[in-house]
Amino acid sequence: MKVLIATEKPFAAAAVDGIRKEVEAAGHTLALLEKYTEKTQLLDAVKDADALIIRSDKADADVFNAAKNLKIVVRAGAGYDNIDLAAATAHNVVAENTPGQNSNAVAELVLGLLVYAVRNFYNGKSGSELKGKKLGILAFGNVGRNVARIAKGFGMEVYAYDAFCPKNVIEEAGVKAVDSQEALFENCDIVSLHIPATPETKQSINYALVNKLHKGGILINTARKEVINEPELIKLLGEREDLKFITDIKPEADADFAKFEGRYFTTPKKMGAQTAEANINAGIAAAKQIKAFFANGDTKFQVNK
Ligand SMILES: NC(=O)c1ccc[n+]([C@@H]2O[C@H](COP(=O)([O-])OP(=O)(O)OC[C@H]3O[C@@H](n4cnc5c(N)ncnc54)[C@H](O)[C@@H]3O)[C@@H](O)[C@H]2O)c1
């Protein structure tokens, strides 16, 4: 089988080496399309590929139309909104992600950004500490669980709400489970967002919700920008000078948020999963999933079921 890695933004070399080892050990061949600049290059490269590994690359209907032999596409990463799932299904292609492989990287960034925020972006003025502060984790998935683990090390009091994760799973991790996202914001000094972008969550982080945060509250987003109602958050930041907003996903209205100097910070580009370890883990997980799929039809991580 021919496995194609198609990455506009390439994997680390060590990740490609690891993928190659996995793929070739199983008797498959590996092809590489890196740093492509035109969609036509991708459409050409996928023509005879049986499996495709991508990062943030778009796998849309054109890709599935061009890839006549394609049986599986794996997004090396957690979010898979860059894959047109309906088109994949229509072409009988199994679409997978590699959940959990970058969650520690994202979680470490959350705590790093929070230290930066409570120390006033290192502006020379005395700040505050995370120890003893109440942290609310919105969604107790792979990233949320890692944030909880690290935050407990900082001595934070950790709360979580997840619409689907049973309360006892949250409590067993030493975290206080609350009944709603409203309760999470009401109870906490800091809320960290780890929800996916779905029809229910899009625009759900709005004025009324964030306004429930304690005085001096911080909202931190390392999930997806679509979950935030930007106009409402801008209005709230204008009214409440005690609030800070920290994000790893530059908002559409970055220039408007930037007016809240000293209370707003965005990473220049999404940095959460940008570590050598996450890169290697996700790439190798993708290769292993493809191997298992061809060896015994394993579709454990399929997202278009
Ligand atoms: N900043 C980055 O570079 C980066 C990297 C990885 C992931 N992410 C983003 O972080 C988020 C979390 O990733 P993850 O790997 O933890 O995902 P995950 O699938 O492991 O966890 C998501 C959790 O959200 C819960 N959930 C779904 N809908 C909900 C709702 N309406 N209300 C409350 N909870 C709900 C699910 O039950 C699940 O526990 C995603 O948005 C992902 O795209 C960002």
TrEMBL record:
This is 3-phosphoglycerate dehydrogenase. Residues 27-304 form the D-isomer specific 2-hydroxyacid dehydrogenase catalytic domain. Residues 123-249 form the D-isomer specific 2-hydroxyacid dehydrogenase NAD-binding domain. PROSITE patterns: D_2_HYDROXYACID_DH_1 (PS00065). Belongs to the D-isomer specific 2-hydroxyacid dehydrogenase family. InterPro entries: D-isomer_2_OHA_DH_cat_dom, D-isomer_DH_CS1, D-isomer_DH_NAD-bd, NAD(P)-bd_dom_sf. Keywords: NAD, Oxidoreductase. GO terms for molecular function: NAD binding; oxidoreductase activity, acting on the CH-OH group of donors, NAD or NADP as acceptor.
